[in-house]
Amino acid sequence: MTQPATIRRERGHRPRLLDLFCCAGGAAVGYARAGFAVDGCDIADRPNYPFPHHRGDALAYLAHLIATDEIRRYAFVHASPPCQHGCALTVGTNASQGWGRAHVDLVAPTRELLDRTGLPYVIEQPNGRAKIRKDLTLCGEMFGLGVIRHRNFEAGGWTIEQPAHVPHRGRVRGYRHGQYFDGPYVAAYGNGGGKPTVPELQAAMGIDWTDVREELTEAIPPAYTEHIGAAFLATTTLEVAA
After folding, report:
1. d(C-alpha 204, C-alpha 185), whole Å
2. What is the C-alpha end-to-end distance of the chain, expressed in Å?
3. Does the record's keyword annotation contain Methyltransferase (predicted)?
4. What residues make up the domain containing 63?
């Protein structure tokens, strides 16, 4: 894959980014800080999402944008397809598109549609879940955060350098097999078992616009995508659309 020479933007506006499976906007805020204008899409109601967004099936929406050529509004696409088999996104409108059978991974059809856009993109997944090419792995310790939260990113149509993985400073706080461990990081998943309070989660993740635990535990720390967005913009030329 080659680095794109130019990306298009409207005169006087930031380049626009499409954030698929957007949840509450952890990724979106990072990209906005890097210099993008962001539009989201999620099948669930996301009143805490801080930017304009479409409520609906992300793959059906992306297919619509491609079919209508509206995808040309965008310079970049981020996608975080759900990694839990049998979740809500594997039913409903996905079924009518052939993506909706239980226990079917959404990464492959997401990648297929993203390749059809002709745009540079990233697909994000946690460690140990759906298979993607690991072009980039980020960790909270790289950004001085209070979580470890490893996330892998596949870069489509562009390249990004892997930063050094900073050694962890200790354990994740909480119970493991009935034993309590202390440490400098909080567990940004689940509830109980020594898990952090919502304010602790917000502080550890760098997220202050939602106080919904489920949204916090599903989020990507904005520092990750600020890094990705800044790296992309630093290696491209902005072309003003006519």
Report:
1. 8
2. 27
3. yes
4. 6-161+221-240
